[in-house]
Each structure stands twice: as C-alpha cells, then as structure tokens.
C-alpha cells in the first residue's frame, strides 16, 4: 500500500464539488486515510510550493491557493502516486484526457482543481507537511 497527498483546490471547493471529487478517488480504488478542510496562509502555501519559488507562475499560484479553503486528503491504494497522477490528468486541464478530474473540474492552468504528489519523496514530505500521525488512519 502506498499513500499520496491529494488537495481539492479553492476553485473546486467554491464550485461545491468536494464530494464528487472524493467519490472519483473512492471509485478509482483509493481509501481516504485522512481528510480536512483548511484555509492556507501565504506562508503555508508558499512553503508547500517551495520547489516552484521564483517561477513566473509562483505568485499567482500562492494567491490562488490562499483564495479560499482547500480540502487536504491522504489517499491510499496500491501504486497510489502514479494512479492518482493518471486519474488527475495533465496539469493544464485543456490537455487532460476525458474522464480525468482536471478535465471535468479544472478551469485553467492555475485553477486546475486538484493537486497530487509526484514522487515518493514528495508524497512523504507533503503528507508530513499537512497531517500529523494521529490524523491518517
Ligand atoms: P500539482 O503540483 O498541483 O499537482 P503538477 O504537479 O501537475 O500540479 P507542477 O509543475 O507541480 O504541476 O505545478 C504546480 C502547480 O502550479 C500546477 O498545478 C498549476 O496550478 C501551477 N502551474 C504550473 N505550471 C504552470 C504554468 N505554466 N502556468 C500557470 N500555472 C502553472
Ligand atoms: Mg506538482
């Protein structure tokens, strides 16, 4: 079993499709090991996206990620990291395959509805960033 961090981003929370996205994960065989809704501060979002600091889209990304609540999800299944990347689809929703979460709920490159960890190292860092040991069961 492998775990990955999913985030339902502010545009999707605003559209009131949190439950529908959680259902897409469950229907794809993921178990929800941890779940919470939070309002990120600039510091929290900036630290989370530290690898992108200095890139042209960083400020817009941090502004967007703090524009409203997000839902943090610890997801578990076999091959969870790769399977979630597949289920989410391409970063740019316009390029995402039919049936993927970003194709269905993404609005733009920045407002692409969900995040998913991209490697075992990222998953460990990101899960530890947002969840303590009592919160993933
Ligand atoms: P995420 O990390 O959110 O799961 P990703 O791994 O597919 O997405 P990254 O390269 O890690 O993509 O970029 C992080 C986020 O930054 C993207 O989800 C997107 O919202 C934003 N982003 C990345 N590249 C661009 C870009 N060229 N223009 C606008 N926003 C971008
Ligand atoms: Mg990424």
Structural description of this entry:
- This protein has 137 residues and is α+β, with helices and mostly antiparallel strands.
- The protein has one domain (2-130): Nucleoside diphosphate kinase-like domain (Alpha-Beta Plaits, 2-Layer Sandwich).
- The protein has seven helices and four strands; from the N terminus they run βααβααβααβα.
- It has helices spanning 10-14, 18-27, 42-48, 58-65, 80-88, 101-105, 120-130; strands spanning 2-8, 31-38, 70-77, 114-116.
- The protein has a four-stranded antiparallel sheet.
- The two termini are 13 Å apart.
- Adenosine-5'-triphosphate binds at residues 52, 57, 61, 91, 109-110, 112, 115-116, 118.
Q: How is the secondary structure organized here?
A:
Blueprint: E1 2-8, H1 10-14, H2 18-27, E2 31-38, H3 42-48, H4 58-65, E3 70-77, H5 80-88, H6 101-105, E4 114-116, H7 120-130
Antiparallel strand pairs: 1-3, 1-4, 2-3
The structure holds adenosine-5'-triphosphate (ATP) and magnesium ion.
Adenosine-5'-triphosphate (ATP) binds next to strand 4.
């Amino acid at each position: 079993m492998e775990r990955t961090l999913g985030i339902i981003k502010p545009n999707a929370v605003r559209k009131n499709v949190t439950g529908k996205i959680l259902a897409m994960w469950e229907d794809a065989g993921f178990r929800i090991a941890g779940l919470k809704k939070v309002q990120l501060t600039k510091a929290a979002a900036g630290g989370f996206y530290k690898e992108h600091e200095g890139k042209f889209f960083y400020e817009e990304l941090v502004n967007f990620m703090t524009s409203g609540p997000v839902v943090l999800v610890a997801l578990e299944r076999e091959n969870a990291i790769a399977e979630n990347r597949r289920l989410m689809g391409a970063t740019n929703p316009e390029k995402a395959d039919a049936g993927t979460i970003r194709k269905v709920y993404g609005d733009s490159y920045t407002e692409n509805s969900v995040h998913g960890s991209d490697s075992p190292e990222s998953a460990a860092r990101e899960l530890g960033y947002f969840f303590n040991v009592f919160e993933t069961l």
